[in-house]
Amino acid sequence: VFSGKVKAANVLASAPSDRNLGAFKELGCKTTHCNSEVLQHCTVVFLATKPSLYRGLPRHQAVPAPPAVPRDHVIVSVAAGVTLQILEELLPAGTKVLRVMPNLPCVVQEGAVVFARGSCAGEQEAALLKSLLSSCGLCEETPESYIDIHTGLSGSGVAYVYLFAEALADGAVKMGMPSALANRIAAQTLLGAAKMILDTGEHPAKLRTDVCTPGGTTIHALHELEKGALRATVMNAVEAATVRARELGKR
């Protein structure tokens, strides 16, 4: 809707109450309280309900509720931990299912999104989904096994970056810079560094080396980060979040 790829009038959102539909109404989307109405009028259906509503349900109670999903429909699940196998068991045989994992910056169209397709979804469905979600930022098709890793790297990783940005700004405040200015500069520093990785295609280690001069400020600062085991700590954080995502998926 934000990118203009889909007209707001062509979007139909369903929720049990109006509480979660206000944002859609403000954008000009149609709304309803009936899931089956979405199935009747939309061929691409995103399921963004809580994972607990999927697991353990007998097929006739699966989300979305009856009527059965037509064969020309594409079902896209955003529920964390709900595997393609579970989705295909809950939905009618032959349903074209894809599983998506976005991250928070999608709300400002700078997100990182990965998706995997079920056994009945083909190249056409994958291309359609990628076309739609690319407006949210980076969008990549991956094996389903990568989705939990993406959660540890990018879903939870946004919080790691916020923590680092806060620490950067606090360091500047400690040295005498006003907090508001320090926060803006820290954010721009992260934005610029990330853009250089994407635009140049260089490995981060190469770009880091380019900033360092012999005996300069950067190498002295990097020495302090190494003493604090920054790299090992961040790697451990990604591992911990990935392991937790896998645990939640098994429940």
From TrEMBL:
Sequence ranges assigned to domain Pyrroline-5-carboxylate reductase dimerisation in this UniProt record: 144-248
Domain Pyrroline-5-carboxylate reductase catalytic N-terminal: 9-81
Entry keyword annotation includes NADP: yes
Keyword entries, A-Z: Amino-acid biosynthesis, Cytoplasm, NADP, Oxidoreductase, Proline biosynthesis
GO terms (BP aspect): L-proline biosynthetic process
Localization terms from the record: Cytoplasm
Main location: cytoplasm
Pfam families: F420_oxidored, P5CR_dimer
InterPro entries tied to this protein: 6-PGluconate_DH-like_C_sf (IPR008927), NAD(P)-bd_dom_sf (IPR036291), P5C_Rdtase_cat_N (IPR028939), P5CR-like_CS (IPR053790), P5CR_dimer (IPR029036), Pyrroline-COOH_reductase (IPR000304)
GO molecular function terms listed in the Swiss-Prot or TrEMBL record: identical protein binding; pyrroline-5-carboxylate reductase activity
GO CC annotation, single: cytosol
Reaction it catalyzes: L-proline + NAD(+) = (S)-1-pyrroline-5-carboxylate + NADH + 2 H(+); L-proline + NADP(+) = (S)-1-pyrroline-5-carboxylate + NADPH + 2 H(+)
Binding site for NADP(+): A48, T49, K50, P51
EC number: 1.5.1.2
Binding-site positions, NADPH: N35
Pathway entry: Amino-acid biosynthesis; L-proline biosynthesis; L-proline from L-glutamate 5-semialdehyde: step 1/1
Entry function: Oxidoreductase that catalyzes the last step in proline biosynthesis, which corresponds to the reduction of pyrroline-5-carboxylate (P5C) to L-proline using NAD(P)H. Proline is synthesized from either glutamate or ornithine; both are converted to P5C, and then to proline via pyrroline-5-carboxylate reductases (PYCRs). PYCR3 is exclusively linked to the biosynthesis of proline from ornithine.
Family listed: Belongs to the pyrroline-5-carboxylate reductase family.
Complex and partners: Homodecamer; composed of 5 homodimers.
Name of this protein: Pyrroline-5-carboxylate reductase
Source species of the chain: Pelodiscus sinensis (Chinese softshell turtle)
